[in-house]
What we know:
- The protein has 172 residues and is α+β, with helices and mostly antiparallel strands.
- The chain has one domain (20-170): Beta-Lactamase, CATH 3.30.450.20.
- It has helices at 35-41, 45-48, 63-74, 121-139, 143-161, 165-170, and strands spanning 20-24, 30-33, 79-86, 92-103, 109-117.
- Strand 1 and strand 2 form a beta hairpin.
- The N and C termini lie far apart (37 Å).
Amino acid sequence: MKPKVQPTSVEQVMREDDFIVSKTDTKGVITYCNRIFMEFAKYDEHELIGQQHNIVRHPDMPRCIFKLLWDTIKQKQEINAYVKNLSSDGSYYWVHANVTPVIDDKGEIQGYYSVRRKPNQVRLEKIKQLYKTLLEEERKYGPKEGLQASSALLNNLLKNAGKSYEEFIFTL
Length: 172
């Protein structure tokens, strides 16, 4: 069960040479986490292993971004995304995440591998504005309708830009 953490305004900033690494099973349950993940998440290894990866999900993250992420990796494709994570003490940290499916010899997904690094600050400022707009759209409606509304808003933005989400974030 995900512990209840009260978000604060305290930000942790990743160092240039930091790489946060984790592995999950196909349901998003953490099976491996590196020292830097534990440092930023402020959990011990035994508190992370066996937990859903959303243990570090910050409430400021639009749900449509996670839907996009899951839809992409379930199709055996990797994705890059900007994510705001929540630490056990309520502080937060932004990451540029690369999530890749782990595929066995039979072509079946066995789990997911994620490497996160310090985000580009110029792009991050633009992402923060986009995510704020998406989150506002989600909050106008109930949970199901909010996800649909923010997903539609994101899809329309990407369609108008003529880009995929990844192309969009890399050209900000």
